[in-house]
Amino acid sequence: MRSSWFRPARRATAATLVSALALAALTACGTSSSADNDNNAGGGSSDPTAPLDPKAKVTLTIDCMPPAAKKAELKEWKEDVATFNKKYPNVTIDGKSTPGQCEEPARFTAALKAKSQPDVFYTYFTDLQQVLDNDGAADISAYVTDKTVPALADIDSNVLDVLKKDGKLYGLPTSNYRMGLLINRKLFTQAGLDPNKPPADWAEVRTAAKAIAGLGKGISGYGEYSAQNTGGWHYTATMYGLGGDVVSADGTKAAFNTDLGKEIVQNLHDMRWTDNSMGQTQLLKWGDLQKQMAADKLGMFLAAPDDITYMVQQLGADYANFGMGPIPGGKATLFGGNDYMIKKGSSPDKIKAAIAWLNLKTLTPGKGQFDYARSKADGLPVGLPQPAFFTGASKTEDDQLKAASATMPVENFRAFMDNPVPGKAEPAKAQEIYKVLDNVMSGVLTNKNADAAKLLSTAETQVNQVLANQ
Amino acid sequence: MSAPSAPTLPASTPAKSRSRRTVRRPAPDGRRPGRAGRALRRNLTAHAFLIGAVLCFAFFSWYPMVREFLLAFQKTESGQTTWVGWSNLNYVFHDPAFWQAWRNTLLFTGLALLLGFAVPFFVALLLNEMRHTRGYLRLLVYLPVMLPPVASVLIFKNLYNPEYGLFNRILETLHLPTQQWLQSTDTAMLSVVIASTWMNMGGATLIYLAALQGIPGELYEAAELDGAGLLRKIWHVTVPQTRLILSLMLLMQIIATMQVFTEPFLLTGGSGPEGSTTTVVYLIYQYAFSFNNYGGAAALGLVLLVLLAVFSAGYVRLSRAADE
Fold first, then answer.
1. Where is this region: Disordered (chain B) (predicted)?
2. N or C: which end of chain A has fewer CB within 10 A?
């Protein structure tokens, strides 16, 4: 028998309560986690050249604050916030830290789609079109001047160009890289090679790889990616190094099915199957080769300088164990990097505050990320050839400051630094092309009888379809 | 023994007077509420309780489905969303990876059914015959399901490693040729299926086991009296008695295996050697998160949805047959 208290009226009340709770829960789920915007949206002077209104209260959410696990970096972040707040006490910096990489593409794509990216958000150079397609970034051209960013004239114009579309500037760089040949100095020495003279062309790479693999104990001489689009990325980098390209100048046709393209595939085939200097484990992606090299199981691979930071900080390797040379061939090298953009719809004051913060944190020699003396005192690495977007007087000043506080043997990167290779940007529809080229790389690295001509011919057809399929 | 029958009212009694629930007060304006209104009032409490679940489904299942359908016919460029008709589907059908992904997915489904359907059934048959250790063995069979999928996949990734993996060590010990497993176009998909079968067979085995235990023992006894051996008993008693469950599981496995993503993504990086493990769902992932082509991803999702809807309809039909 039912209890008498549970009468229809009360049942209805209970049901209403349940429904209200459910609604409340759903509302909570649907609420943006971002402290979206802000107490002064639309406030302040709309004149981009006017200084930030000191009376306007501005709160900036900013990507890529170091996580708690990175104590030294987090300490420096907080110090920079304190420094910034001395000049701009009206601005509250609300840093957002993310575990792992600052930008994880799947998460980033979803955030853009949901328009839930922070006010100042971290992107890769290659993300601009994606961000614009999602109406995600503000045009900051008018706000970025030699007054707001004093080193502006000394920032490499090639780098700034990557962040422009139709003459409008949408981001400010924080770091950039040029790919080179990363080597394990210990294995070079053990194999009787000179670690101060990294191989300069692919014939030398092959010879060195064979010698290193000859050490046995599961050591590979040279490593290469072939999964999750990273294989195609490295094929492109190799092609650039030899002076070739993967798409035609007008971007409408594949351009890798050439003698040069076949040469790359054949060389990889010979290293993998004839010399057996690339190990049996293939289908590798970003992170796999770094683990091998950090464990002294790999002699060389194509990389950006910050791979060394990853190996030291995340995998416990030693800076002194690594060196870099320019990309084999040295005709051109794939370049990339990362930057910050400002969310579209931000108020003028918010944009001004964001640029002031970025100027302090990432664009002023001797300050923020370029405060090498502080980094050295905090036990952080100093001396990597990256970032490298300054030119002129700023570069001279930065080089001097870096050399004065270097915590690693910078001569290990001498070959890379002394032989600068012109940078070349990634092709349009890069990821779709890399996906197709992954098959070329995985084909040659997993199949002894792979037919280079057939692999390239198939990939050419597919890339042409991709380029035609706009 | 049959249950006592409820007292019946004389046939001449008007239907409305048979139950208190049918007594209706007129609405304030003098009109009587309509049939829908009456049904709503009668089930008000149930409807109120349902609101939470309905809203959850609406927000997190139905709305995304509708959104996906719309996205499949839209394109967003420079912040402007426009209707593009069949353009996204056209893009998908002309993608060189499209047919390869379907071939791979169907191959996975075929192999997964061959292994993932037959193996759990025979394991269930064996377990059903056990008398003393059935409980422990059931736990052992189900254990992989309790492991996080990523952990299971990483275990297999190491087992398959051509240099230090256990499988090649065993082959070497037996003086058999070692394999490239995940690194060969010939064996990559099969290797993925083996890992997937091991990871997922526990649940299917338990369902088969439950079905087997529902078969009356008299049927086996009668078959034995008729001189049937083990195989004939399985063929003539077990299979017919579990046919409906087998059919339902077959459809459910088709639906599940056609959406495979985790295993190839983690074991071979998604594409595998020369794209040999690229599946449809991995291609959808690539469209959305590598190419930022949500329209293409939605269009391909729609194609997959249509195909799976056919199998789902079959599943619903079989479920109804099972209920009856």
1. 1-36
2. N
Return the higher-pLDDT residue of B316 and B258.
B258
Q: Are B183 and B162 in contact (CB under 8 A)?
A: yes
Q: Average pLDDT for residues B90-116, to the nearest whole number? A: 91
pLDDT at residue A11, rounded to an integer: 56
Selection from A66, A70, A68 nearest residue A81 by Cα: A66
CATH 3.40.190.10 fits A58-178+336-405, yes or no: yes
Boundary of a domain, candidates B89, B116, B148: B89
What is the tens place of the pLDDT at every residue in B42-58? 888 888 889 999 999 99
pLDDT at B12 over 80: no
Among candidate residues B27, B57, B89, the one where a domain is terminated: B89
Chain B residue set in contact with A, beta carbons under 8 Å: 44-45, 48-49, 51-53, 55-56, 59, 76-80, 91, 94-97, 161-164, 180, 182-185, 268-275, 285-286, 288-292, 294
Q: How sure is the predictor about B3, in pLDDT bands with cuts at 50, 70 and 90?
A: very low
CB contact under 8 A, B96 and A26: no
Instruction: State the CATH class of domain A180-335+416-468.
Output: alpha beta
Q: Which of A110, A37, A131, A79 is nearest to A338 (CA)?
A: A131
CA distances from B204 to A241, B248, B255 (A): 53, 11, 14
Q: Is residue B31 part of a domain?
A: no
Distance, in Å, from the CA atom of A82 to the CA atom of A78, rounded to the nearest integer, reads: 6
Closest-CA residue of chain B to A11: B45
How far is Cα B30 from Cα B33, in angstroms, rounded to an integer? 9
Residues B214 and B241 in one domain: yes
Q: How far is B17 from chain A (nearest CA, A)?
A: 22
CA atoms in the 13 A half-sphere facing the CB of B79 = 11
Between A33 and B82, the more confident residue is: B82
ipTM of the complex: 0.73
- Shortest Cα–Cα distance, B61 to chain A (Å): 13
pTM: 0.78
Looking at the structure, tell me whether residues B243 and B151 fall in a common domain. yes
User: Best mutation site among A438, A458, A460 for testing chain B: the one with the most B CBs within 10 Å?
Assistant: A438
Residue B135 and residue B80 in one domain: no
- Low-confidence stretches of chain A (pLDDT < 50) are 1-6, 26-42
Residues of A in contact with B177 (CB under 8 A): none
How far from A48 is each of A90, A142, A143, A351, A361, CA to CA, in Å? Answer: 18, 6, 5, 9, 21
For residues A258 and A264, give the distance between their C-alpha atoms in angstroms, rounded to a whole number.
10
Q: For a pLDDT cut of 90, what percent of chain B falls above it?
A: 41
Q: State the Rg of chain A over Cα.
A: 26
Domain that holds residue B72: 43-89
Average pLDDT over residues B306-310: 90
Cross-chain CB nearest to B55 (options A23, A218, A439): A23
Determine the pLDDT at residue A270.
97
pLDDT at B138: 85
With a CB cutoff of 8 Å and minimum separation 6, the contacts of A312 are A318, A319, A381
Domain total of chain B: 2
Inter-chain residue contact B270 with A228, CB threshold 8 Å: yes
Which of chain A's residues have a Cβ under 8 Å away from the Cβ of B93?
none
What's the confidence (pLDDT) of residue B25?
A: 53
B241/B318 same-domain check: yes
pLDDT confidence of B38, banded at 50, 70, 90?
confident
Burial tier of A90 (Cβ tally within 10 Å: 0-12, 13-18, 19+): middle
CA-wise closest residue to A462 among B120, B101, B249:
B101
CB atoms within 10 A of CB A326: 21
**What pLDDT score does B22 carry?**
45
Cβ <8 Å between A19 and B44: no
The beta-carbon neighbor of A105 closest among B49, B274, B289 is B289
